[in-house]
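Comment on both lines for my students:
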Amino acid sequence: MIPALRPGDKIAIVATARKITLPEIELAIRTFKDWGLQVILGESIGASYNYFAGNDALRLQDLQQMLDNDSIKAIICARGGYGTTRIIDQVDFTIFQQHPKWLVGFSDVTALHSHIHNLGLESIHAIMPLLFPKEGTADSIETLRRVLFGEDVVYTAAPHAFNRTGTAIGQLVGGNLSMLHTLTGTRSDISTEGKILFLEDLCEYLYHVDRMMVHMDRSGKLENLAGLVIGDMSDMNDTPVPFGKTAYEIILEHTGKYNYPVAYGFPVGHEPLNLALICGRETALAVSESGVQLTYC
């Protein structure tokens, strides 16, 4: 179990993917300090190499230093984008495994969540500093605080017409659908058997969503789940010849033949309400006609 944060602890903010400027995360820094935390900024914050927050070597070194520094009790990824998979195979997790700490982020950071899951450690899928100023994120930020500081959380969601009722217990895994698709066959690929999988995505073409769900099914990622949680599929795109189905309808098509409980419309993903989820934690999912509840065992 990773220790909960306490006032006075040091946390680090790094950018493993797309570049970001200091002004973009100033609200997050103030928020963390208001929680009583000391904030250490990595060299990748403010760095620029074309699209990225510094070149691969800089981003790798930045992440590695924070993983190895035992005085740092949590690492917060500043934003997503693309770039984490370019460096992850060069990261040495030896010291991190001996002295684990929270690693926080979502979207492109799904690569780190999945890789860390294979090491037997938990991580936090949650809002990132870039998004703190966005309107409507207060509850997302509060759930991150509660999880970081070891407070209990119980999440609920409204019923959805596509939900399949039932209960399940299993480790919670998942994240960004595009990233999970990309990780298939790599060292960061995860087993989903007997687990509760959650999915979200942003700005994908609908036919891409279908192709990824076909691939997930063909590669055995969907068949033996304990349960499935579908978060936001935000700002989906269509082709001039319409695909003919929404993202949720596509997912329903490829999971409807299975019997585990499925919850649609769960507040996780690229929307202001993005509840902090503990990847790797034993989790109970209950889907009923009245709604959805997710709790940690």
Remarks:
- The helical segments are 26-34, 56-68, 94-98, 110-117, 138-148, 177-183, 206-218, 247-255.
